[in-house]
Amino acid sequence: MQKTYKMSKEHLDELKQELNWLKTVREHEVADQIKEARKFGDLSENSEYDEAKNEQARVYYRILEVENMVAHAEIIDHDHISTDRVNTGCHVVVQDAESGEESTYELVGSQEANPMEMRISDESPFGQAMLNKEVGQEFTLNVPAGKLKYKIIDIKA
Question: Is this model's pTM higher than 0.70 or not?
């Protein structure tokens, strides 16, 4: 079964722009680099040529990767997010059972995760532990240092 990539409409638009840039600009730049490197002579000992070919492979790989994400994108519609249970797209307020400290996280698809901005992937251990929990429910997260317990305080769209 093909994996779907959960993401916002904005992130999908960014991927489409990147794909367009890769195909219309970057691909041609790399082709020009290869053409220029060929002028340096013997290809078997031409490091510029080797590097240009490696860059071409990276660009083609990224094109395939982005095309796959765009083709299998599942848009998270923030206007229709249920707040009965934790699901992708929600903002979740959790309380650390030990310290009592509260933190708010946005549960996002793996492509948009950024822990520094409190955007947690729904595929991460923490995100998976929160999924489908209701307000008031507790969950435990196993970490190398032991077990961490949290309680769901609030779920917002």
Answer: yes
